[in-house]
């Protein structure tokens, strides 16, 4: 049995903080599940982390379905949430079509959609149809060309709008909300006011949970991680060192040895040669 939205909401009621992490493929999803992470997000951040784009905007529904299916196949217990990508849920009928494909073809348990009060009717409809929806407010990267990439809702009017958006999503049936890059005191207030879990990224310690990007916390991308990310390991450096060793051993002839090779009866080889 997989973790459900009821388990996640019970964690908030019980005061247990919720750890969520992105995953994009089968083996990493399996590792995250073994580490006990209850929610894995197949984020459209895969546009940057695995596809080499600068933004999430080029990611397609087919891309998301392919990666989400891989994550589902690597897990049996974690709740798998997938982003619907840019402009695949702008109308109710698009949202239903995209949700059907993601749930049926990839087999995820829930979807994440970026947007506030104006998205609420779509959230309500999907929820009525049996699709659990996670909201996403604050910095919503699919809108980066209109919002920018900076901390959101620092001023009173925008903070009030964010609170209204969050309440509208909760009323529409969203089972949780991701809050990205908003001031910590505002996020903490929202987490207190909402019944549903508020999962922060760059939103401070007062949220009900945290979400991070796999590559950011494991040191897998060249250069600095974002400010909100802590590097829990330097896997990129470890990989590079291992690969240098591999290349050096191929070049020196130290790899492979008999241990990595198959032998053959010399008589069989001799027979083959005449
Ligand atoms: O795509 C993603 O990884 C996300 C998280 C950063 C919340 O949406
Ligand atoms: Na995303």
Walk me through the structure:
This protein has 274 residues and is of the alpha/beta class. The protein has two domains: 5-233, TIM Barrel; 238-273, no CATH class. It has helices spanning 5-13, 26-34, 46-49, 61-73, 92-106, 120-128, 144-147, 156-172, 184-193, 214-217, 235-252, 266-273, and strands at 18-22, 39-42, 79-83, 110-114, 133-138, 176-180, 198-201, 209-212. The chain has an eight-stranded parallel barrel with strand order 1-2-3-4-5-6-7-8, surrounded by seven helices. 42% of the residues are buried. Catalyzes the reversible reaction in which hydroxymethyl group from 5,10-methylenetetrahydrofolate is transferred onto alpha-ketoisovalerate to form ketopantoate. It catalyses: (6R)-5,10-methylene-5,6,7,8-tetrahydrofolate + 3-methyl-2-oxobutanoate + H2O = 2-dehydropantoate + (6S)-5,6,7,8-tetrahydrofolate. Its cofactor is Mg(2+). Keywords: Cytoplasm, Magnesium, Metal-binding, Pantothenate biosynthesis, Transferase. InterPro entries: Pantoate_hydroxy_MeTrfase, Pyrv/PenolPyrv_kinase-like_dom, Pyrv_kinase-like_dom_sf.
List keywords for this structure.
alpha/beta, 8-stranded parallel beta barrel, elongated, TIM Barrel, 2 domains, magnesium, 274 residues, 3-methyl-2-oxobutanoate hydroxymethyltransferase, 8 strands, binds sodium ion
